[in-house]
Amino acid sequence: MNKHDTLLLRxxxxxxxxxxxxxxxxxxxxxxxxxxxxNIKIRRGETLALVGESGCxxxxxxxxxxxxxxxxxxxxxxxxxxxxxxxxxxxxDYRRRLQIIMQDPASSLDPRMTVRDSIGEGLRAFGMVSxxxxxxxxxxxxxxxxxxxxxxxxxxxxxxxxxQRQRICIARALAPEPELIVCDEAVSALDVSIQAxxxxxxxxxxxxxxxTYLFITxxxxxxxxxxxxxxxxxxxxxxxxxxxERIFSEPRHPYTRALLASAPSIxxxxxxxxxxxxxxxxSPARPPSGCHYHPRCPVRLGRCDRDVPPExxxxxxxxxxxxxxxxxx
Length: 329
Known about the structure:
The longest helix is centred in the middle third of the chain and has 18 residues, at 192-209. The chain is α/β, with parallel strands linked by helices and 329 residues long. The protein is built from eleven helices and 13 strands.
């Protein structure tokens, strides 16, 4: 069996809407539809990249799966258990298996805690250490695993470089021995040379520990290097998914083609033939009717402003576009 044959996580209609409150009584006058009926699948041992412009809802999807924010509706199955339906006490058992690496290591590390205490926080929380000596030993092993000098564990985050701080965050995420890690723009705040080092580290750890990654990013150059599969998100909806190689060589959705055409790091031979998206991204508080992308789409049809395109399934993925119905037929 291929290591990617086993489905680890899937979401069904996952939605997270944030209320917009105004006035003295803080009355709800609308909602920001950050995630709006998201369906994704991640197989064990693979990397699924969730891509799209800033504000499209990528981070919200990751945090909703981890229940760092609560879903408005929908389900997220992890090993066939609906995480959204679990009581807090029952979800605690899964929180160890699901970890996150944030974008900015400086803000995600408590400046008042030593590296030893930051990395060891999860070990203590999940009862994985017997005493202080055991904690020190395990933290030292984790630091060595991410190529950090364990003799520096009693220092504070400000004494490390940005790349070193992100390695500390990776060690902290690894401490509870997770199966799936959400990497939320995990390299976007780093210099390009440091990005490559961190990506190589994540790739090595994945091979050694059979980790599964949900890799949230806007950097298509990173995606092409790192991902097995890609899900493209626009205004809270997944508009296309498929193998990374196919997404870059034969994108099916107009928005995917626009992203590739506007990405400076992509080889021109692999860029889409269509122009970049027209105009600014609409507000997720007031998304367009029909296909959310239609006001910016250079190939929109007459029905696109009225009807929501269905998910058209192909052998290697999905595209949510009326033109894709013609491609399938």
